Structures are given as structure tokens and as C-alpha cells.
Amino acid sequence: MNEIGFGLIGAGVIGRVHAQNIAGRPDAGLRWVVDNDAPRGNALAAAYGARFSASVDEMLADPLVQIVVIGSSTDVHEAHLLASVRAGKPVLCEKPIADSLEGARNCLDAARAANVVAAIGFNRRFDVHHRAVFDRIRAGEIGAVESVHIVSRSSEASPPEAAHRAGGMLREKGTHFYDLAHWMVGSEPVEVFAAGGCLFDQGYAAYGDVDTAALTLRFASGALATFSFSRRTTYGYDEMIEVFGSKGMLQSRRQQQRGVSLYQGDKIVCDGIYPSWYERFAPTYVAELDAIVAAVRTGTTVEPSLADGMRAQAVAEAAVASLLQRKPVAIPNVWQLA
């Protein structure tokens, strides 16, 4: 089997995750690392035998680069995605697609025009627990889906400036979970109401952002999804999904690090949940690479696709508007072909 060459844009936290996973594949190799921080980018490239460049164009000119992974900050996703698809390169882009609805639409249109494989980094779809809930919904075990409740609370808050560059809570964090809700419900989102505030760090307010939020999302089917978001806990990475239907309920529970409990006296002491998002979801980052490699090798479509990213971005932009306007906001369907 011929080795697939990867180009990686971004040598930050998520870039290092992707670099490690690409290098660990027997069917692939990391050829380039691109970053505007030369010492950081050089160090990551050297660790995996890749070449470093500060130029996206230099990396894209290499014919042996067959897939580009975009792990840069959200404010430059649009430029990097447009350059990649216009060069005819299949791409896996971290979420969200861009820092505006117009920018995301530009990327989706360009990917469709170039007819390249374009995936969005909604790795939660590859979690075995979340996937089991999805499969059992589709098997009809709980009947028609009536409501979904999703909790996402990060173990440690990002600094306000870094969170702003990532797109803000309702984009950067939220898009993962708007996608999961749509995926579970199987209906298109039509309206969202968002409320939020700075309950523990007023620094986010300087960027028009929040550290705590609650949202309600309405679907065309009539089903509702609710979301509880926080930027920090004092007990680890907290994620849970509950799907209620006409015949029952399914739940993807908070996952403990180990399945060990201590029984002593009148107490049962269990291990806590995972300390961070990476420990909880590390296998899913490998699985999303599996998906795009398979799509490129077979010439088939990939899921989750850039259109899925566009749907989630449309929800996010409406949620941002709702937060500012303090009222429900309709979600324009900008992800489906006319």
C-alpha cells in the first residue's frame, strides 16, 4: 500500500496531537509542518522527520502531500482551507470552519467547486459511547427522538485572548455539540436561544465572550436540544449526552478513568472522570484520520463533512446573535445545495 503524505498546518496543542497520530500510522507519513512560530514548528517537524516551513504555499506545492490537516487557530482557518482546496488537496479542518458565517460559506463553496474530499474535525462522532447511542437511536430502540440534553464542561479554562482567537465559546466549543445534537435527532436545526455570562472570569467579556452558557435548539421535527457549557470544572473533563424518545431514553454517561470502586464502611468511592478532553477522546483523533484516509483511497465521501461543519457554524452564528439580542434567532439553511 502506497504511503499517504500529510501536510500539517499548526504546531500548537491540536497540531501536536495530529502529528503524533499521523506518524503512528503504517500507511502514512508526515511530510510538512507549517507554522508562523518557527521554533515551535521546527521542533515538531524534527520530532517526526518532517520538513518545516512558514509558508502554506510551499507545503501545498509538494505533490507528495495528499492530505492537509488544518490545526491552526480559528481566525486563519478560512485562508488555510481555501488555499488547500484550491490546490486540489483533500483536507481535514479543525472546527469551526471559520470565524464568520460568510467565511465558512466561502470555504464550503470552494471545496464543492474543487470536488475534493473535505472533512471537519467533529471527532466526537467517533467516540464509541456516543456512536453506540446513535446506532441504537437509528435501530428504533427509543422511538422518535423528542429531546436531547448535552453537558460540556472543560477541566481548565483557556485564557480569554486565546479563547477569542479560537472563535469564542459558542463557536469553538459549541459546534462540536450542535453537530452531535443534529446527528442524534436526524433533523435540521431551525432556531436557537442562547443565554450566558462571565461567572468566574470577567476577562472574557472584553472579547464579547462568556465562560458559562445555556442554550436551547429547536429542530424541524419539533425535537429540542438543550446544552450546558462551562469553561472549567474542579473535577475533570465533564461530558454527557442524554437522548429522550417516545419509547425510552439513551445516555452516553460521564466516563471514569478506571472501572474501580472502593467499598468501605458506609461509603462507595469511585474513580473520578478523565482529567482533560485529550485523555477522554484520544482514540477519536485516530479514528477521524482513518475516515479521511479511507475516503481518499476509495474516492468516496467522508463524514463528518464540511457541510456538517457549515450546519454547526450556522447554529453557532445564530447563537452568538441570540446571546447579544437576548431572544431566539432563526437559523438560515446555508449548508444544503439549492
Concise account of the structure shown:
The protein is of the alpha/beta class and 338 residues long.
Q: Please identify the top-level CATH class of the largest domain.
A: Alpha Beta
**Average pLDDT, all residues:** 96
Radius of gyration from CA coordinates: 20 Å
Question: Any idea what the CATH superfamily of the largest domain is called?
Answer: Dihydrodipicolinate Reductase, domain 2
> What distance separates the N and C termini?
39 Å
Overview of this structure, please?
The chain is an alpha/beta fold and 338 residues long. The protein has two domains: 4-122 and 283-304, Rossmann fold, CATH 3.40.50; 124-280 and 311-330, Dihydrodipicolinate Reductase, domain 2, CATH 3.30.360.10. It contains ten helices and 15 strands. The chain has helices spanning 13-23, 38-47, 56-60, 77-86, 101-114, 128-138, 160-165, 169-185, 277-298, 306-325; strands spanning 4-9, 28-34, 51-53, 65-70, 91-93, 118-120, 145-153, 189-197, 212-219, 224-230, 238-245, 248-252, 261-264, 267-270, 329-330. The strands form three sheets. Strands 12-11-7-10-9-8-15 form a seven-stranded mixed sheet, covered by helices on one side. Strands 3-2-1-4-5-6 form a six-stranded parallel sheet, sandwiched between helices. Helix 4 links the parallel strand 4 (65-70) and strand 5. It starts with a strand and ends in an 8-residue tail after the last strand. The model has no long low-confidence stretch (mean pLDDT 96).
